[in-house]
Structures are given as structure tokens and as C-alpha cells.
Specification:
The protein is an alpha+beta fold. It is built from 20 helices and 17 strands. The chain has helices spanning about 5-15, 35-40, 85-95, 120-125, 170-180, 190-200, 215-220, 220-225, 235-245, 330-350, 355-365, 370-385, 385-400, 405-415, 420-475, 480-490, 495-505, 510-525, 530-545, 550-565, and strands at about 15-20, 25-30, 55-60, 65-75, 80-85, 105, 110-115, 140-145, 145-150, 160-165, 185-190, 250-255, 270, 275-285, 290-300, 305-310, 315-320.
């Protein structure tokens, strides 16, 4: 991998980078019946969107084959923006079902720029008065007196924003963006780095990783783009049937390859004489230092962390199956903690204050509620005799979290250093009062918790008796056995839970949630090897059925057990 590509990737992971979204467009939909019309055409629940909200969505044909995927954003009461890489197909499909409804579609003539990375909101906050806060949310803002559209959207796996602007302000806005933080400006992200980030994040592209031959549940989009509670739309019956009765034969997963050779695009994967999949996008991963690929795999081979020797277009490869995404982005809190640790380590090694202080300011900017970062920064500032700034910092923390005892304790210390005895005593009294209040609240909470536990215990005993009566009639009843196992696990009666949960997994081999509970129960009994075996079987069952949540939970628990084994 080229050094500049690696630098661009690291910039997005740790700071922020930008690029113009050539090929992307916004299709506007406006009129009194905009969202009622879109409700009948799209896979997600368009009617639930409030102004300022957005969602991932798609349209399919009657066989649930994918026609287009996009994100829908409610910019006004009767206006939606559809952000897509293929506006013409989307436009033509919607118009083909548009008859008398009061809705009009039009392609926006705007330039789209995206800023991606954990520090992207810090830059944009210096340009705009406010930003959209939740994924796919949207906000109108102004720059140079012209309307801009801001959408919170990740196209790299990291936190990011898409900015829609008038074409004539493209250069002026970019200049403003680059000059906002001259010490550490965002850098332009090239196509190769974007592709690494995209594939590591497990984001498929229409026309490359999926097309009109794929049914939507094969692509993984149903986890973010489908509402199973809304009314009818084209393709709904097929999508709902697949969810109810199982999983598609082929579905998108990740593959990691041994060796430096990339697999061919659209190469057929054979295990001995049986075709088990087809390769899509591949790239060398910066995070894993391996060639990785998105691939459609048969349901019998979708268990994660399975190594296989296969042939792809008659060439041998050693592969390992992986859950998507390959790379999980850090949260703001995690980024802030990393910066805090970095600042403390620098101070420990060099006893330098300026650099740690600068890093701690970044930590607080990224996560303004990080109390430990405030405390460390306050201590460092006080060491430089910048007591006024340290006091202002603690006041800011107290405003953000009025219950933060440490803010008032430190204020007392800093006021005392300034000789402001009365202020110091007041802050000390405030800290003491908060400690007392929290102790009282903790005691009350403890009493309420005990009362709630007694009530819950009574209710659980009643449920146990009810389930036992059902099992007297039908000893292999799925619901009763699972319910008993769940209650026994929750109440610490682990030995009693083994029997009913074992019955479920033996009689209902695709019930992935039962494998998860049985594995947890075995862990509680320190039967780790048996738990690992149960998780392996459960992961295989969940992979076939497409039960993503229990699959990931079992995978994480199994990995923890394997890594903790001597």
C-alpha cells in the first residue's frame, strides 16, 4: 500500500478527510403527498420521519430484487431529499408509479462534498451554527448567504457529513474548510483510500457489489433499510417471507485471504466440487494487513472465523470468513479516552505540559462530557498557574453535568490557590452537599431496587409454575423450555437451566437465541469448553438463518473464552 494512501486512511480514522462525491446526486421529492407516495414505494417507513430526520431505504421489484438503494431525508414538511449514486434509475422507477399524486421529482444541481472522521464535527461547528446530530439526520444552514444542506452520513465507517452546496460556492467553501484549522487541516482522500475505508466498513455499492439480480435480503441492507411494521410496498411479501421462514441461500459476508494475491471480481468460489459463493469488491486492508473482500456465501458456509481452502476461478486460495464490518469505528468517548491516555503518557515521559494540554483540549472537544479529561486539563493548567482558565474549565463541566462532584472539588482547590477563601469554601460546601444528596439517592435506589427484585422474584416463580404445567402436557414445548431456561439463568439457578435449554437446541436446531442462553448458562457454571462447543453450533445455526444479533453476541463471547483459555 502506498504511504500516501495509508496516511489518508489514518487521517480519516484519527482526524478527518474530505472528498467531492462525484457520481452521487440528490433527487428532491416535493408536494403534499410526497411521503404518503414514498411510503408505497420504499422498503422503509417514510411516514415515521419527522422534519430533520432521515433513514436508509431501497426500492425492489415484486420478487424483492433490488432496483435502487439510497437514503431518504425529510428536509421540510412536504419535501424529501433522496441521496443516491444512481438518481436516473431511482427517478424513472418512481415516475413509472406516479400518476395523480401531488409529488414532483427533480435532480438538484448541487455540489456534494463529504467530510469524514471523528474530528469532522469540530471543523463544521466553526463554520455553521448547528449540525445534524443523528445518523441520516438533515439540517439547512447558510454560508455566504446561500442555503446549504447538511446530512450526517458515514460513507467510510467513521462519523461524517455530506454537504450539499451551490456549485458556484464550491471553491470558496473548500477554502474556508481548509483554513478553519490551519495547524491540522483535513486532507483530500483519494479513490484508493476511499475504497479501503468502504470495504473495511462493509458498505456495498450498487452496480458493483449488488445489482438487479440480488434480492434485498442477500445484500444485508434489510438490517438498516427495511421496516417490517409498515404497510404494503412492492416486494414486501417476499422480504417478509424470508424473514419469517429462514434466510436467503446466499448473503453478503466478509472474506480475509492469506497471501498477497487479490481474488478476481465476480470470481466463483468452489469448495471441492461445490460452488459456495461469489467474490465482489476486494482490497488490501490497512487495519488487518490482509486482502479482504465482500462476497456472497451459501448459508451452509456463513459461520464466521471458519478457514477454508477453496478455488476461485480455478485458482487456489486460503480464506477465512468474517462478519461485517471488518473494522469497527471508535465512538467519540473512545477517541476521547485514547487522547487522554496519550496526553498522560507524554507528560509521564517528558514532563511537558504544552503538548498534553493541546491533546486534552481535543479530547474535550470530541466528547464534551469526558470528566476525566476536564480534571487532567485542569490540573495541567493549574501547574502552569493558569488558574483562571482552570476555573473556567471546571465551571463549564459543572454546567454540562451539575452533579459532577469533582468539578466543585477542583474549583475549591483553585479558588484557594488564588486566595479566594469564601469562594473556595462555597465550592467545598457544594461538593459536600452533592456527595450527601447522591448518598441519599443511592440509599433510596437500593431500597427501591430491593422491593422491585422481590416483586420480580414473585412474578418469576409464577411463570416457572406456569411453564412447568405446560411441560407436563408437552415436555418439548419450545416456548416453555426456553422461558424456563431464561428465568433460571436470570435468577442464578444455572444447573436447573441446562435441561430445558438443551431440549430446545436439540429439538429446534435453528433456534439461535437458545444456543446463546445455553452458552451463557454453561459459562456461569465454568463449563467453558462446553460453552464454546454450544456457541460454535449456535453460530452455524444463526448464520444459516440470518440472525445477526445473537450471532455477533455468540461470536464475541466465544472469542473471549478462547482468548482467556490457558
Amino acid at each position: 500500500m502506498q504511504p500516501e494512501t495509508l496516511e489518508e486512511i489514518n487521517q480519516v480514522r484519527q482526524n478527518c478527510g474530505y472528498f467531492f462525491m462525484d457520481g452521487w446526486s440528490i433527487l428532491t421529492a416535493s408536494g403534499k403527498e410526497t411521503f404518503s407516495f414514498l411510503q408505497t414505494q420504499t422498503t422503509n417507513d417514510a411516514l415515521q420521519l419527522e422534519v430533520g430526520q432521515g433513514q436508509a431505504s431501497a426500492i425492489t421489484d415484486r420478487q424483492a430484487r433490488l432496483i435502487a438503494n439510497f437514503s431518504l431525508h425529510r428536509i421540510a414538511e412536504n419535501e424529501g431529499w433522496l441521496l443516491t449514486e444512481d438518481w436516473q434509475t431511482l427517478h424513472d422507477h418512481l415516475e413509472s408509479y406516479h400518476f395523480r399524486e401531488d409529488v414532483a421529482f427533480k435532480k438538484m444541481e448541487q455540489t456534494l462534498l463529504t467530510l469524514q472522521g471523528p474530528k469532522s464535527p469540530l471543523l463544521l461547528e466553526k463554520i455553521f451554527s448547528s449540525l445534524p446530530e443523528k445518523p441520516n439526520s438533515i439540517l439547512r444552514q447558510e454560508f455566504e448567504g446561500k442555503p446549504f444542506g447538511l446530512i450526517k452520513k458515514s460513507v467510510t465507517g467513521e462519523e461524517g457529513f455530506v454537504i450539499a452546496m451551490p456549485q458556484e460556492l464550491k471553491e470558496k467553501f473548500l477554502e474556508k474548510l481548509l483554513n478553519t484549522n490551519k495547524d491540522n487541516p483535513p486532507i483530500k482522500i483519494g479513490e484508493q483510500a476511499r475504497e479501503v475505508l468502504r470495504i473495511e466498513a462493509g458498505i456495498p455499492v450498487f452496480g458493483k457489489d449488488m445489482d438487479g439480480k440480488n434480492i434485498l435480503p442477500e445484500t444485508g441492507l434489510e438490517h438498516s433499510s427495511v421496516s417490517y411494521n409498515k404497510g404494503c410496498y412492492i416486494g414486501q411479501e417476499v422480504i417478509a417471507r424470508i424473514k419469517t421462514y429462514g434466510a436467503p441461500n446466499f448473503a453478503l459476508m466478509g472474506l480475509a485471504f492469506e497471501g498477497p494475491i487479490s481474488p478476481p471480481m465476480n470470481g466463483n468460489i468452489f469448495l471441492e466440487d461445490k460452488k459456495i459463493g461469489i467474490v465482489k469488491s476486494s482490497i488490501r486492508s490497512a487495519s488487518l494487513d490482509k486482502v479482504i473482500a465482500l462476497a456472497y456465501l451459501h448459508k451452509d458456509h456463513r459461520s464466521p472465523d471458519v478457514e477454508m481452502e477453496v478455488s476461485i476461478d480455478q485458482r487456489p486460495f486460503k480464506i477465512k470468513t468474517c462478519l461485517l464490518p471488518f473494522y469497527q469505528a471508535s465512538t467519540r468517548m473512545e477517541h476521547s479516552k485514547r487522547l487522554l491516555n496519550e496526553a498522560l503518557q507524554i507528560y509521564k515521559e517528558q514532563e511537558d505540559l504544552d503538548k498534553p494540554i493541546a491533546i486534552l483540549r481535543e479530547a474535550i472537544d470530541i466528547y464534551p462530557k469526558h470528566a476525566e479529561a476536564y480534571e487532567a486539563l485542569g490540573v495541567f493548567l493549574s501547574k502552569q498557574d493558569k488558574l483562571d482558565e482552570a476555573i473556567a474549565l471546571m465551571k463549564r463541566l459543572a454546567e454540562i453535568n451539575p452533579q459532577e462532584i469533582m468539578a466543585h472539588t477542583n474549583l475549591s482547590v483553585y479558588y484557594m490557590k488564588q486566595g479566594r477563601i469564601e469562594d473556595a469554601e462555597n465550592e467545598k460546601a457544594e461538593a459536600t452537599a452533592l456527595q450527601f444528596e447522591q448518598a441519599v439517592e443511592k440509599n433510596m435506589a437500593k431500597k427501591l431496587k430491593k422491593k422491585a427484585e422481590e416483586q420480580k422474584k414473585k412474578e418469576m416463580e409464577e411463570k416457572i409454575e406456569m411453564f412447568k404445567k405446560v411441560l407436563e402436557i408437552d415436555p418439548v414445548d419450545q416456548v416453555a423450555n426456553f422461558g424456563l431456561g431464561s428465568i433460571y439463568l436470570e435468577t442464578g439457578r444455572y444447573e436447573e437451566g441446562i435441561g430445558p435449554l438443551t431440549t430446545v437446541v436439540e429439538k429446534f436446531k435453528d433456534y439461535s437465541a437458545a444456543y446463546l442462553l445455553l452458552g451463557k448458562t454453561l459459562e456461569k457454571l465454568s463449563e467453558n469448553e462446553k460453552a464454546i462447543d454450544v456457541y460454535k453450533k449456535g453460530i452455524a445455526a444463526a448464520s444459516k438463518k440470518g440472525d445477526l444479533m445473537p450471532l455477533k453476541d455468540m461470536q464475541n463471547r466465544m472469542n473471549q473464552l478462547l482468548h482467556s483459555s490457558p
